[in-house]
Design a protein that fits this description.
The protein is of the alpha/beta class. The chain has helices at residues 4-21, 92-104, 112-119, 139-152, 173-181, 201-219, 235-243, 277-288, and strands at residues 70-73, 108-109, 129-136, 157-160, 185-188, 225-227, 248-250, 269-270.
């Protein structure tokens, strides 16, 4: 997640490089969400449909106390020459390698909703669960990340900044619907991606409650977790998230998410360009405090 001005710059670069690199992203008008495209043909995930991998046997039979690492990704494409935020661009091959390394180390991809349910004793988690989250709503997340996770039989979590929907280089409604059918969780990331600690009370409510209403109305999903734009939050922002009915919120604070901690300040592990699969696995293990 980035400050709004930096995000706008990155989205512009994504849109310019989308044709050559397959990246996605686009910022809407700062005054509100841009209308979603209604002219594009229905899209499907890259390549032929693959049967999902067998679901591993759950090991939790009661209230889960598992610490769960939440990885944070952005653009899934090669960075164009001179990209200002090149660290946010992860190639599709690198993402596939990260997923393969995590799976080989015994990790299993899950949604954040399933983690929250397990922490309340309403669901069971597989051994060594991990959440892969993708911020902002770049087209490459639906295409490249969608294909990589589908091949592994894993779900993802899309943190959708509403103004990117249907914009050049951004996700289309049909692409998001495909992601939902493939098991993805869709969570709000505000309407226009501002620093929520700097806006007035009325805009704060619109950005938080309004983005949830838009996601729920458009896609028919729970939209139970909020993702703070640029990771910025304070007590007033957190209170607004609670008031909007969310069950949890994710930040850019480092570490693994733990059931006994503040559910509205869940940490994540940022993945940057150039990180090897071994480094990603090591970071996940360190976050959960396990040498296994």
């Amino acid at each position: 997640m980035l400050p709004h001005r930096a995000l706008t710059t990155l989205l512009a670069a994504c849109a310019a490089a989308a044709g050559a690199a397959g990246c996605g992203g686009g910022s809407g008008a700062p005054g509100g969400p841009a209308p979603a495209s209604t002219t594009s043909a229905p899209q499907v995930a890259n390549g032929p449909a693959r049967a999902p991998a067998p679901v591993p046997a759950a090991v939790h039979t009661a209230l889960s106390r598992a610490a769960v690492p939440i990885l944070m990704y952005h653009v899934i494409a090669p960075a164009p020459p001179g990209a200002k935020y090149a660290g946010l661009w992860i190639t599709p091959a690198a993402l596939r390698a990260h997923v393969a390394a995590l799976a080989a180390a015994g990790y299993h991809g899950v949604t954040l909703d399933s983690v929250l349910d397990a922490w309340r004793g309403r669901a069971k988690l597989p051994p060594h669960p991990v959440v892969l989250s993708f911020d902002d709503g770049y087209l490459s997340q639906g295409k490249a990340a969608g294909a990589a996770l589908q091949a592994a039989g894993w779900p993802g979590v899309l943190n959708l900044a509403w103004h990117n929907l249907g914009t050049p280089g951004g996700l289309t409604r049909s692409r998001v619907q495909t992601m939902i059918r493939d098991g993805w969780e869709i969570d709000p990331h505000s309407l226009t991606h501002p620093d929520l600690t700097t806006v007035g009370a009325a805009q704060l409510r619109r950005e938080i409650a309004g983005s949830r209403a838009a996601v729920r109305r458009t896609f028919g999903v729970a939209a139970d977790a909020f993702c703070y734009p640029a990771g910025k939050f304070d007590p007033a922002v957190e209170a607004a998230v609670r008031a909007a009915g969310y069950r949890a919120a994710t930040t850019e604070l480092p570490g693994a998410a733990r059931p006994g901690a503040d559910r509205y300040a869940l940490p994540r592990i940022r993945v940057d360009a150039g990180e090897s699969p071994a480094t990603v696995v090591q970071g996940v293990r360190a976050a959960v405090g396990s040498a296994a």
